[in-house]
Structure formats: structure tokens, C-alpha cells
Write a structure and sequence with these properties.
There is one protein chain. The chain is an alpha/beta fold and about 260 residues long. The protein has one domain: 3-Layer(aba) Sandwich (Rossmann fold), CATH 3.40.50. The chain contains ten helices and ten strands. The strands form two sheets. The protein has a six-stranded mixed beta sheet with strand order 6-7-8-3-9-10, with helices on both faces. A four-stranded antiparallel beta sheet has the order 2-1-4-5, covered by helices on one side. Strand 4 and strand 5 form a beta hairpin. Helix 4 crosses helix 5 and helix 6 runs parallel beside helix 7. The termini are far apart. The C terminus is likely disordered.
Length: about 260
């Protein structure tokens, strides 16, 4: 493993609604090395997306520490943090402003962070995700789901971050488009030496994308596995074995 990029120690996230208290994440710990692709897997409600939101300061932490390299993160996160860490959300339609052109979507982060050569950077960002310059002045509703998610990836990459947090980045897309976007993300990571933390309910997706993964259930991290251990079915918990057989059944059903 390379130098440590991200360290999550005994993370707790608690939501309070009136008299109700929900411990969404309970004592979760993991490390991610520089240049690694790390997966967080679990069923809906397991707390996996909440972990990502806590890392980027969008969920309230009630305990534990999150470190980026050697620095303990403070709330609210600094502008420097968002230069280094960007998030790609699940639903590309909801995450893009419907009345903003793609040009505005991409130029906004550049303006906020004071980047120069904006014109050039926008065209390069579109090219990097496989979209031509003619997409620049379209609106989100004029794009397909896969194209919208490519724009969301371009927006995340335009600030030249070192780490992407990927929250179910293909689950809203058709199966054929899913593979295209995953392959794009894979290629970009290799080319740029990026670090990924990727959340998914689908073990097959994570096995394709990630070097290591943690499995979550009811807010707890129940097992950590390497890609090799996963491929060799060396899961130790019944819950992971169940996820494994569910994803295999899905993959076989999808195969022609």
C-alpha cells in the first residue's frame, strides 16, 4: 500500500428527529491508500452513503475522526478540501441544475476556486469524459442519463482533485450504460492516479472497480475484504455471503 490518503476512525453519525435517535453509522473504521480504489458495500439503509456524506462534511458526525493525509478534518470543510476531494452523486439529474447549461455547470466551480483558462478547461473536461464541445451549451434535460453522469464526473474532475467519493454512481443508469461509466471511471483513475472511495449495494460493481472493500450492515462495518478474497469467495460473515450470491444471481440473469 502507498502513503495513507484517508483515515476514518471509529466514525459515528447520529440523526435526531424530535424524540427519535437513529445511529446511522456506528464505530466504522478504515484506511484508504493514495491511488487506491476502496469500496463500501451494503444494502439500502446500511449507512454506507452516510459515511461518504460524513467524509465530505454533509452529515453530522457524533464521534470519531476523519483524516485526509495527516490532517484531521474540521466542520465546515475548507475550500482547500473541496479542491482535493470531490463527490459524484447517485442521481445525475438531481445533481445538475435543470436551468443551467453544461457550460455554466462546469464554469461555476472554476469561478469559485479562482481557476484561470476556464474556456480551455471546460472543453478539456468534456473531452476527458467522452463528450464533444457541442454538449457545452445544452441543458441537462437534453442529455441521456449516461451523458448527465459523464457531466457530473467532468464537474468533479475539473478542479483537479486527488480523490473522488462515488455514491452509487451508476445505479440510476441502464445496465449497458453502467458498464460504460464504470470503465470511464476506471480509466480516469489510472490516467490521473486518483484515489476512489465508492459506495454501492452491488458487490459485482465493487469487485470490478475496487482493490479492497468494507461491508456494512445496520451502521456497522461487519467485514473487510480484498478483491482477491471476494473473487475466491472467502467471505466470513453470512451477510456478505448473502450479498455475494445475490450479486452473482443478478449478474447471471443479466448475461446474454
Amino acid at each position: 500500500m502507498g502513503a495513507l490518503m484517508l483515515s476514518v476512525e471509529a466514525l459515528d453519525v447520529t440523526f435526531r428527529r424530535g424524540d427519535d435517535t437513529v445511529r446511522a453509522v456506528r464505530g466504522v473504521s478504515f484506511d484508504v491508500a493514495e491511488g487506491e480504489s476502496f469500496g463500501i458495500v451494503g444494502e439500502s439503509g446500511s449507512g454506507k452513503s452516510t459515511v461518504l456524506r460524513a467524509i465530505c462534511g454533509l452529515a453530522p458526525t457524533s464521534g470519531g475522526l476523519i483524516r485526509l493525509r495527516d490532517e484531521t478534518l474540521r466542520t465546515p470543510r475548507s475550500a482547500a478540501f473541496y479542491r482535493e476531494v470531490q463527490m459524484v452523486f447517485q442521481d445525475p439529474y438531481a445533481s445538475l441544475h435543470p436551468r443551467h447549461t453544461i457550460d455554466k455547470v462546469l464554469s461555476e466551480p472554476l469561478a469559485i476556486h479562482g481557476f484561470d483558462r476556464r474556456e480551455e478547461r471546460i472543453e478539456q473536461a468534456l473531452s476527458d469524459v467522452g463528450l464533444g464541445p457541442d454538449f457545452r451549451f445544452r441543458y441537462p434535460h437534453q442529455l441521456s442519463g449516461g451523458q448527465r453522469q459523464r457531466v457530473a464526473v467532468a464537474r468533479a474532475l475539473i478542479l483537479e482533485p486527488e480523490m473522488l467519493l462515488l455514491d452509487e454512481p451508476t445505479s440510476a443508469l441502464d445496465a449497458s450504460i453502467q458498464a460504460e461509466v464504470l470503465n470511464l471511471l476506471d480509466r480516469l483513475r489510472t490516467e490521473r492516479g486518483l484515489t476512489y472511495v465508492m459506495v454501492s449495494h452491488d458487490l459485482a460493481v465493487v469487485a470490478h472497480m475496487c482493490d479492497r472493500l468494507v461491508v456494512m450492515q445496520h451502521g456497522l462495518a461487519v467485514e473487510e475484504l480484498t478483491r482477491e478474497a471476494l473473487a475466491a469467495h472467502r467471505a466470513t460473515t453470512d451477510y456478505t455471503k448473502k450479498l455475494l450470491s445475490a450479486s452473482e444471481g443478478y449478474t447471471q440473469a443479466e448475461a446474454p
